[in-house]
Amino acid sequence: MSLNFFDQFMSPTLLGVPLIAVAMMFPWILLPTPTNRWLNNRTLTLQNWFIDRFTNQLLQPLNIGGHKWAMILTMLMIFLMLLNLLGLLPYTFTPTTQLSLNMGFAVPLWLATVLLGLRNQPTATLGHLLPEGTPTLLIPILIIIETISLFIRPLALGVRLTANLTAGHLLMQLIATATFVLLPMMPTVALLTTLVLFLLTLLEVAVAMIQAYVFVLLLSLYLQENV
């Protein structure tokens, strides 16, 4: 049987039932639930501190109207981060390596920001399609270019998240396979490859967190243009 590096991105099944739903529900099980006690435990305190700092950082440039999105953006950030980090564990599946899932997150939220702008400030929203002071001959071309760039935004959101996670998983599997093959032949080289794999794993942990933050940050920037 030939080794296929892309098999890890296939949704696992059990008795013909896809397990992607289980993989998407599992992060919420790991989150600590609030208690009625006066003092929370360290885990819950750390979680509340992280959510508070992230929300302040994310919503600082937005006006009061954009603060209604605080719950959605914060929960999306935590959900994507946990999915990405859990996908780095052995014998696990990363749902965010599926472009269809990422587009399912990106398209509705991007469309909501656009519709919100068209409802609240239609003149300013449509004005983004034509920069001020544009020469008359360039007006049709610039409108077409800006419209295309507007509709490419959700595609860029989904593709960026998918490509970064997919590339990282493939690179880790390639280096791990090379380590396994080199171990009986060249132990010294295999040891160096193991060190590279360890450093790459640390990098992938950072990438998993950063990509979730970038996804939500770009959504907040799109929201900032329309509120």
TrEMBL record:
The UniProt subunit note reads as follows: Component of the ATP synthase complex composed at least of ATP5F1A/subunit alpha, ATP5F1B/subunit beta, ATP5MC1/subunit c (homooctomer), MT-ATP6/subunit a, MT-ATP8/subunit 8, ATP5ME/subunit e, ATP5MF/subunit f, ATP5MG/subunit g, ATP5MK/subunit k, ATP5MJ/subunit j, ATP5F1C/subunit gamma, ATP5F1D/subunit delta, ATP5F1E/subunit epsilon, ATP5PF/subunit F6, ATP5PB/subunit b, ATP5PD/subunit d, ATP5PO/subunit OSCP.
Q: Which GO terms describe its molecular function?
A: proton-transporting ATP synthase activity, rotational mechanism
Give me the reactions it catalyses: H(+)(in) = H(+)(out)
Q: Which organism is it from?
A: Latimeria menadoensis (Indonesian coelacanth)
- What does the sequence similarity comment in the record state about its family? Belongs to the ATPase A chain family.
Q: Which Pfam families match?
A: ATP-synt_A
Any GO CC annotation of this UniProt entry: proton-transporting ATP synthase complex
Which InterPro entries is this protein grouped with? ATP_synth_F0_asu, ATP_synth_F0_asu_AS, ATP_synth_F0_asu_bact/mt, F0_ATP_A_sf
Could you tell me the membrane topology recorded for this protein?
A: Multi-pass membrane protein
Per the UniProt record, which residue ranges are transmembrane? 12-31, 69-89, 101-118, 138-159, 171-199, 205-223
Tell me the compartments it is located in.
Mitochondrion inner membrane
PROSITE patterns noted in UniProt = ATPASE_A (PS00449)
Entry keyword set: ATP synthesis, CF(0), Hydrogen ion transport, Ion transport, Membrane, Mitochondrion, Mitochondrion inner membrane, Transmembrane, Transmembrane helix, Transport
The identity of this protein, by name, is ATP synthase subunit a
